[in-house]
Automatic annotation (TrEMBL):
It is a multi-pass membrane protein. Pfam families: CobD_Cbib. The chain crosses the membrane at residues 51-71, 78-96, 155-177. Converts cobyric acid to cobinamide by the addition of aminopropanol on the F carboxylic group. It is found in: Cell membrane. This is Cobalamin biosynthesis protein CobD. Its main location: membrane. It comes from Isoalcanivorax beigongshangi. Belongs to the CobD/CbiB family. Keywords: Cell membrane, Cobalamin biosynthesis, Membrane, Transmembrane, Transmembrane helix. Pathway: Cofactor biosynthesis; adenosylcobalamin biosynthesis. The gene is cbiB.
Length: 312
């Protein structure tokens, strides 16, 4: 099998050249499987206790993830070395979402810069769960920048981290659990108990990558701005609702020199969120700066890992 550092570089190169598969994406099929499980183990017509709901969620998580993990381990041992290396590289490519994230950011930034708010609202609604129908230019830029920073940690940095640490099974475990959290991790009546296991496991798997991502944003910030990035990370990140998104977005916002957070409307209710970062409100140009930050960080990780392997 290829050295992890070289595989990271090749995976990023494949993502850059090919982008996200437009048809037959493995995660789409996994999403169908997860939805089928949820409909049978968590039917809306059945009312369960907290314990029973969590037990059903644990069972669904195991049924969704364990067979695919077992299959990946078996294939890595059963296939010839070159085929196992190609399979691992394909798995990393499927897990990465760097180019896709950039495509979504541009789809929002271009109409936003042209003051085409209806088109920008439609585009940002594709990547965030908040109500976007009444967002102004600042609200759209804020929501999109938050999405770039948070999804950069989930779909890029965490994938690189778990692949480097545990190869194909590692990146597969994280990406599948992260997908389940996106599908089931809502704090509403239907999912508050059923999605508990997926949400908590996603927090555990993302804890260290999120803090390494925040450290990367600190490192890539202008030298004079790093003390502020550190303060925002340490002081603001801990009061955010998500233990992993908080440090990432606080450090990222400070590195970009903007303020994120604040009130946002979800499912008809306004959530008063803490402020993150320091500086003016984000604009359309902030999206390009945020993507540059994520891209530079991802290639830096891969290059450093490759260099670490080369000197051993």
């Amino acid at each position: 099998m290829a050295a992890p550092g070289l595989s990271l570089l090749l995976g990023l190169a494949a993502d850059r050249l090919l982008g996200e598969p437009r048809r037959h994406h493995p995660l789409v099929y996994f999403g169908h499987w997860a939805q089928w499980l949820e409909q049978r183990l968590n039917p809306p017509s059945v009312t369960r206790s907290d314990v029973a709901g969590r037990a059903a969620g644990v069972l669904a998580l195991l049924l969704a993830v364990v067979p695919l993990l077992w299959l990946s381990v078996w294939l890595l041992h059963a296939l010839p070395g070159w085929a196992a290396a190609l399979l691992s590289l394909a798995g990393l490519y499927a897990a990465l979402g760097l180019r896709s994230l950039g495509d979504h950011a541009r789809a929002i930034a271009e109409p936003l810069a042209a003051a085409d708010l209806p088109a920008a609202r439609v585009a940002v609604a594709q990547v965030v769960s908040r109500d976007c129908s009444t967002l102004d230019q600042t609200g759209i830029a804020r929501a999109a920048t938050e999405s770039v920073l948070e999804n950069g940690a989930d779909a890029v940095f965490a994938s690189l981290f778990w692949f480097a640490l545990a190869g194909l099974p590692g990146v597969l475990l994280h990406r599948l659990v992260n997908t389940l959290d996106a599908m089931w991790g809502y704090r509403n009546q239907r999912f508050v108990d059923f999605g508990w296991a997926a949400a908590r496991l996603d927090d555990v798997l993302g804890w260290l990558p999120a803090r390494l991502t925040a450290a990367t944003y600190w490192l890539l910030a202008p030298a004079g701005n790093r003390p502020q990035v550190w303060r925002c990370w340490q002081q603001q990140g801990r009061v955010w609702g998500s233990p992993n998104a908080g440090p990432v977005m606080a450090a990222g916002a400070a590195a970009l020199g903007v303020t994120l957070g604040g009130p946002a409307q979800y499912h008809g209710r306004v959530s008063e969120r803490p402020l993150l970062g320091a500086g003016p409100a984000p604009q359309a140009a902030t999206l390009a700066a945020a993507m540059t930050l994520v891209q530079r960080g991802a290639w830096l990780w891969a290059l450093l890992w490759w260099l670490a392997g080369a000197v051993r």
